[in-house]
């Protein structure tokens, strides 16, 4: 079975400082890894994904994430946080089985960027 | 990018009534759509996988007769909450991956695109 762990319920960071939102996963075989962001009462917006290739992937709004196979991690990072980055962030994984395999989500991490 | 819409965005209904939620892929075809449920301050829980032209696959613990799913076309899936009760109040989100091809050559995108969600409140 596949699973995702986001160990932090809440991350607080000052505007302009770097931010990290942690994610570890468990899956049989090679994973597809994703980060999504959710604003209040809205659906999920896709940020970035790792499928194969370079371990460091860059996504929307200046976010990036690093795939670490040995640590089974896929932490989300941004060099300089903005107040507008405050939202709920979800890490998700999908095992490469078939086209119908759904995403499994972590519990989410609420990011609060303070001016 | 690929757009998924949901209708309605919110609905309030009386206990015992049924509510239908539509999920549409606006600029792509999707042979498979997914329905999720999200409780306040919690993660998304997969309810079912909706397959065009066939029966949905439900996750363990999800009542098939309670949550009716119909995927009548390549761009539309519907979720009907039957005889709704207050405990069914939640945020329902659908998602889809773009698919193309046919028969044994159906391919899909890696990325799953999400609708804006439907907030259901049952009084």
The Cα radius of gyration of chain A reads 14 Å
- What fraction, in percent, of the residue positions of chain B are helical? under 10%
Radius of gyration of chain B: 14 Å
Shape of chain A: globular
Biggest protein-protein interface?
A-B, 23 and 28 residues
Number of helices of chain A: 0
Note the total helix count of chain B: 0
Ends apart, CA distance between termini of chain A:
41 Å
**Main pleated sheet of chain A:** 6 strands, mixed
Quaternary state reads: heterodimer
Q: Which spans of chain B have pLDDT < 50 for at least 5 consecutive residues?
A: none
**What's the average pLDDT of chain A?**
91
* SSE ordering of chain A: EEEEEEEEEEEE
Distance between the termini of chain B: 37 Å
Strand content of chain B: over 45%
The shape of chain B is: globular
- Strand-pairing-aware structural class of chain B: mainly beta
Largest sheet composition of chain B: 7 strands, mixed
- The portion of residues assigned to helices of chain A is under 10%
- Tell me the fraction of residues in β-strands of chain A, as a range: over 45%
What do these coordinates show?
The complex is a heterodimer of chains A (115) and B (123). Chain A is an all-beta fold and 115 residues long. Chain A has no helices and twelve strands. Chain A has strands at 3-5, 10-14, 19-21, 24-26, 31-38, 44-50, 56-58, 64-68, 73-78, 87-95, 104-105, 109-114. Chain A is globular, with a radius of gyration of 14 Å. The mean pLDDT of chain A is 91. Chain B has strands at 4-7, 10-13, 19-25, 32-38, 44-51, 57-58, 67-73, 76-81, 90-96, 99-100, 107-108, 113-114, 118-122. The mean pLDDT of chain B is 89. With 123 residues, chain B is an all-beta fold. In chain B, strands 2, 4, 5, 6, 9, 12 and 13 form a seven-stranded mixed sheet that branches. A four-stranded antiparallel sheet of chain B has the order 1-3-8-7, with no helix packed on it. Chain B has a two-stranded antiparallel sheet with strand order 10-11. In chain B, strand 5 (44-51) and strand 6 form a beta hairpin. Chain A binds chain B through residues 32, 34, 36, 41-46, 49, 51, 90, 92, 94, 99-100, 102-108, and chain B through 1, 4, 6, 32, 34, 42-44, 46, 49, 51, 91, 93, 95, 97, 99, 106-108, 110-117, 119.
């Amino acid at each position: 079975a596949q699973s995702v762990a986001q160990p932090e319920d809440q991350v607080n960071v000052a505007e302009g400082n770097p931010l990290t939102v942690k994610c570890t996963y468990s899956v049989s075989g090679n994973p597809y890894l994703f980060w999504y962001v959710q604003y209040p009462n809205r659906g999920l917006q896709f940020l970035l994904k790792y499928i194969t290739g370079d371990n460091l992937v860059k996504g929307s709004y200046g976010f990036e994430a690093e795939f670490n196979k040995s640590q089974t991690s896929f932490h989300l990072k941004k060099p300089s946080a903005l107040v507008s980055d405050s939202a709920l962030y979800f890490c998700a994984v999908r095992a490469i089985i078939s086209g119908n395999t759904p995403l499994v989500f972590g519990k989410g991490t609420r990011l609060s960027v303070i001016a | 990018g690929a757009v998924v819409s949901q209708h309605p965005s919110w609905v309030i209904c009386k206990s015992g009534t049924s509510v239908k939620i539509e999920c549409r892929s606006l600029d792509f075809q999707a042979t498979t759509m997914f329905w999720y449920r999200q409780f306040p301050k919690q993660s998304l829980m997969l309810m079912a996988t909706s397959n065009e032209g066939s029966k949905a696959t439900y996750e363990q613990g999800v009542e098939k007769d309670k949550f009716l799913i119909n995927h009548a076309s390549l761009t539309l899936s519907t979720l009907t909450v039957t005889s709704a009760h207050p405990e069914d109040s939640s945020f329902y989100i659908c998602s889809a991956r773009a698919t193309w091809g046919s028969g044994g050559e159906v391919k899909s995108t890696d990325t799953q695109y999400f609708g804006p969600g439907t907030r259901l409140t049952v009084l």
